[in-house]
Each structure stands twice: as C-alpha cells, then as structure tokens.
Amino acid sequence: MIDRFGRVATDLRVSLTDRCNLRCTYCMPADGLEWMPRADMLTDDEVGRLVRIAVERLGVTNIRFTGGEPTLRKGFTEIIARAAALAPRPRLSMTTNAIGLESRADGLAAAGLDRINVSLDTLRPDRFAALTRRDRLPDVLAGLAAAQAAGLTPVKVNSVLVRGQNDDEAVPLLRFCLDRGYRLRFIEQMPLDAQHGWNRAEMITAAEILAALRAEFDLTPSPSPRGAAPAERWLVDGGPGEVGVIASVTRPFCGDCDRTRLTADGQVRNCLFSQTETDLRGLLRAGADDDEIAERWRVAMWGKLAGHAINEAGFAQPLRPMSAIGG
C-alpha cells in the first residue's frame, strides 16, 4: 500500500477492543467511557480475514495488536495463532498494560506472539495508583518478568511523563529497564485523550527527557538505522543498553511513517490523527470479496496526508480517543 508521498505501509496496528481495565488520567475519565457496542465490533473471523488480506494482498509484514487493552478480548490467543499461520508469516507483537500477563505469557508465546510492549509510567505504587486509578503495579511488574521468561523479546516498556506527576522518573525508569534487559521508550504525551483536555504545557518534551537522562548517563546515537521506526534511539554508556524517545509532537516523523490502522469496529485509519475513516466492516458484512476489500484499503492509504499537523494552526484533535483508535 503506497500513498501519494511514496510511503509504503507495511506495519498494521489492529485494535481488538476499546475496553481497558485501567483509567489512566491522560487517556480517559475516572468513570471510563461508553464502550463500543459488541455488535459493532469485528468478530474473530472478521479480524482474521482482514489480517489475512493485509498480509497476502497488501504487503503487510508487521502486525501489532492493541486496544484498549487487547488481552480483554475473548479469543485473542486464537487470533494470534491464525495470524502466525499466514504465509508469509508476519512479525507479531502486542501493546498491553501487562495486567494478567503473568499467567498468559507462555500461552501467547506458544500461539505465535513474538514480542511485547508494556505501558509503564512509574515505579512508585502511590503514583501508579494515582495515574491509572488502579492499584495494580505489582501485576504489571510480574507481567513484564513473565514476558521476558516466555521469550517475548525484546520486551519494550513505553513510558509517558506528565509534568508535575512523574516527570522526575526518567532516570529511575531507565535504570530499572537496563538492569532487567528491557528496552525503554519514552513517548511524548499526544492530544488523544477522551476528555480533549491535552495541554502542551503539561507535556514533557523529548529535549527535556534527554536532558534529564544525560545528567546521569552518556548517550550516543544508535548506529542502527532508524528506518520507519517511531523512536529515535541512543546507546546508554556505550551500550549494549539503549533508550528511545518517540517525539511525535516536537520531532514528527510523519515523512517515514509506514503504518496503517484497523479499529475494533473495522474502520481503516491511515493516520493516528486522521479525521476520516474507511469502513471495511460494512464491506465484509455486505459480502465483498477479498479483491474489493483490498482495493478499498489501498484507496484509503493513497489519501494519507503528509503529516499530522499537530503544530499547525487549526489542528483538530480526532473525535475518537486513543483507546478507541488503537495504539
């Protein structure tokens, strides 16, 4: 799938649910959201078919399952196994909060999952409870360890720093990950909250994160090519440990983006911040064949804009929050 600017989409993000068992302050209200009606969600067979079309007909080579919290989806392990059986076999990963992962890691690895990204913004139990509105930090830490033991590697940790809440934890988070062989990625807070209350002044920038890390570590640019990866990467104290920063707001990487997104209700989004979607669920349920679905997907990607325009006048936040779009 190619767009007007020559970018080729080989990375598919598949959201399996908009539901989540945390209530992170920068993502959704304390009372949660009005969840997507189950009848609107793609069935397991529909997810499997769209993933197969993406791999066999559209050249997708990497698939990441997201949510919401993807492990809340019944049938999730079977969806992974079906994707792993495709030819050519795509690389399979998942973004999760790791609650419940301790008991599931071995089964996910056996089904064909290759690796894990875990969201973790603090190492302090009191802050974790305040940020997520749930007292589940021990479960997350146990899930991380289980993923490592199950071979879901490299285990990556995604952290968002929020001013006045956890902005002093850049160094402790990196030490924690280096000591355990996890790969840490700091992510600038993006305007994707359900409350539409994102405030640029509260966002900790990539420059601030790097300044805090350089006060304790020697950082040198990674010699590995970045390609279409969202993270800028640095070796820590000469390596082999590394840290990455995903600076979606202050250092956009839209020109190299290789992603296409499928929401839990079967809508294609050619950009995380897109204001439009293309309905594939309707095609599926109307009896469209694989060729027709693949062509509609190609057309959707052809219309991808040059960038997300966060830093331009008139930027409008997507109507859907991150939990409904998929990470």
Describe this structure in words.
With 327 residues, this protein is of the alpha/beta class. The protein has one domain (11-325): TIM Barrel. It contains ten helices and twelve strands. A twelve-stranded mixed beta sheet has the order 7-8-9-6-5-4-3-2-1-10-11-12. The longest helix is centred in the first third of the chain and has 15 residues, at 44-58. The mean pLDDT is 92.
Care to give the gist of this entry?
This protein has ten helices and twelve strands.
Strand content: 15-25%
**What's the CATH architecture name?**
Alpha-Beta Barrel
- Envelope shape: globular
The gyration radius over C-alpha positions equals 19 Å
Q: What's the CATH H-level homologous superfamily?
A: Aldolase class I
H-E order: EHEHEHEHHEHEHEEEEEEHHH
Major sheet: order of its strands? 7-8-9-6-5-4-3-2-1-10-11-12
Specify the CATH class.
Answer: Alpha Beta
Kindly state the percentage of residues in helix. Answer: 25-40%
Tell me the domain tally: 1
How would you name the oligomeric state of the polypeptide chains in this document? single chain
Please outline the helices and strands.
Blueprint: E1 11-15, H1 44-58, E2 62-66, H2 76-84, E3 91-96, H3 105-111, E4 115-119, H4 125-132, H5 137-149, E5 156-159, H6 170-180, E6 183-187, H7 206-214, E7 219-221, E8 232-236, E9 242-246, E10 259-262, E11 267-269, E12 278-279, H8 281-285, H9 290-302, H10 322-325
Parallel strand pairs: 1-2, 1-10, 2-3, 3-4, 4-5, 5-6, 6-9
Antiparallel strand pairs: 7-8, 8-9, 10-11, 11-12
